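Lesson 9: reading folded outputs for more than one chain in a single document. The general rule is that every protein is listed as its sequence immediately followed by its structure tokens, and records are never interleaved. Here is the first one.
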Amino acid sequence: MELTPEYIMLIFTGFSMAFIISLIMMPLLIALSHKRQWLDDPNNRKIHSEPVSRLGGVGIFLSVLTSGALTPILVSGFLKTDLTLFRLLHPNILFILATILIFIVGVLDDFVELRSMYKLIGQILAAALVCFGGALISNVSIPFTGVELNLAWAAWPVTLLWIIGVTNAVNLIDGIDGLSATISLIAFIVYAIVFMFTGHAVLSLLSFIVAGGLVGYLYFNFPPAKLFMGDSGSLLLGFILAILPLVADPKSGTSLMMPITLLSIPILDVFFSIARRWRKGISFSNPDMEHLHHKLIAIGFENRTILTLISAVMVILAIPVLLFFVLPSEKVIPFILLAWILIGILFMVLHWVYHRKIDGR
């Protein structure tokens, strides 16, 4: 599918429909949450001080599902072409089932607080469905050498680790109003543009649809938030962000360059979180108050300022990603590596400033 007027109509319809459905559904879900007391209550680990609806993820999922189902039908009827949801998505049915499974895991965790082991098992099963569907990280490129390593038997564990890691990274960064949704929105917009110009029309359409659902959600999640996405939303978004590049180009050694760069903030946050727990000898499942957003708040930044700063960093990270698909890769990779190094340095500086602040030095 080329970038034709028909395709432009398709993505515009998909984005707009997801946005409108999300915008309509969120107030209904907020009202339902308060009526049924399906609320995220404040405690000493959380930033908010009043009970807030946690059904935002359900709204995102339903807006994406509805728009994904109706957009091809509406556009095909208008254009009088054979464009159906099944025709677009049937090659990716295992990926769709995996996404539904991860959403169900998130919903269950929101309502009954699954034990960490059960939650992990659900994530492994969903990631395994993706692997069975053929989206395996089978090669890894070594920058500047032109060498690609064939992972052979290690492809499965590496792919599982990647999917589960990114899924939880987006989940863990969801600690203040608007943060996870803003990071995900920028990432999905970049995904959509890259997929559009690399011949992955269906994945581009899906990315635009998710972006539309997120814009509708952010209207109610922007600080001060009226609802949260819960684990049903953060796990769903992280999972989709992890698997789309693999679905697009599973055998390419550079397929992870885009998500690693765009998601370097949540990825590094979860990396330092694991290292911190390992150093202190505490369980990885134990929550703490030392994630990126917690440190920025402790230093003195307000919620909206944090969103502005991280959005600016995300936009800067998006530039070399987009250029990678326009210019020769050898000219862009140094800038991507530099971006990774600078983000790592920023995290270490933030860690130093944070501990200077709380230690009173």
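And here is the second record, again sequence then tokens.
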Amino acid sequence: SVLEKLLDRAALLQAEKKLTPQLAKVLVYDLLFGKGLKCGGRWKALARRHRARLEAELARMKVRRKVSRNEDLLAPEKAVSAAASQVPRYIRVNTLKTCVDDVIEFFKHQGYAYLGKAASVEELKALSGKKFLLDPHLPELLVFPSQTDLHDNLLYTSGHIILQDKASCLPAFLLGPVAGSHVIDACAAPGNKTSHLAAILKNKGQIFAFDVDAKRMATMNTLLTRAGVTGCQLVQQDFLTVDPRDPKYSRVTHILLDPSCSGSGMVTRGPEEEAALSAERLQALAGFQRRILSHALSFPALRRLVYSTCSLHQEENEDVVQAVLQEWGSAFRLVTAFPSWSCRGLAAFSGAESCLRASPAETLTHGFFVAVLERCREGAADPSCPLQPTPTPRFAPKAIPTLHPAGLGSSSSSCSFQKKKKKSL
């Protein structure tokens, strides 16, 4: 069972000889899955002594099983579906610290066989054992078999690679801000997309990353520091309350908006959870998404915005985009996102095919939706005419403290890993 594996990996029974297996299970369940420890005295103190180790083992187990919530571990038959088992393990190379070639060489030295760049999604299905490919669409994405466990790998623990689903990499990739840009990540936690934006910007520019939850912000700060991100200001604030006319955002030209959604595209989501999503809840989410998208478009210098969800529902995707485009008239237009991507938006309105979708069956990813919007040139009669680019602004970024693991090179060298480590491989 999950509890037995946690006890074994944390070596709790070996460390506490007077603790019986049954009592240990009760303590661990209350500590990690329940509403807190109900006991007191020495048993409560004992559980707290081992809390950090147990939580670390719990985090590793969630990574291995590709689940995000503790309760999903207790019902693996529901959480780990056939769809989840066919989605590969995607690894984004963090170009703030290393480069693709060096990471490939590192894995080859670890006994993995590199098969080159995949020609199609079909090749990804055939991956097995210790083999990996370069993704056919995203140049900094490596693809491993589904059950590959890299959470203890040196490249991951040092921030040189990011474990991130391919679909989740699409928003920052399609936003594509140039170095020096000012960018908003409106709903940023846990921070993988933020670190991706920083890599695209080459740490040259300014990112404003918003989230309303203090714990998520603290986690994101740790992640961004490990990834070597600088020039990112974390703001604990509801993005809907941010004043677009605030002078500090006067140079924001790009916004990544990935708001709260139903999560129906997550392959670890069980059918019971999806069935429990009421029509009222779905409409409430869609209403929130329309408001926050419209709010994002009100930033005066905005030129390009990416709206994304991990939802399969038209109400949260095409319907939201259509409603907001109608609200803004000819001020913004849909851009065809990734023309070579085969899975397009539902035919909910004229032009919806410019959006893209992702799914386990068609793209071997989590279910996802992405729309790219651009401001039209002021006064243009034809709304298909985009705003012309403006010169890249110059900016001296304010740095977040950056982690530099010993021997792994600094974030200032984009291809430093091999040079620092080749002799020890």
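What the second record shows: The longest strand covers residues 368-375.
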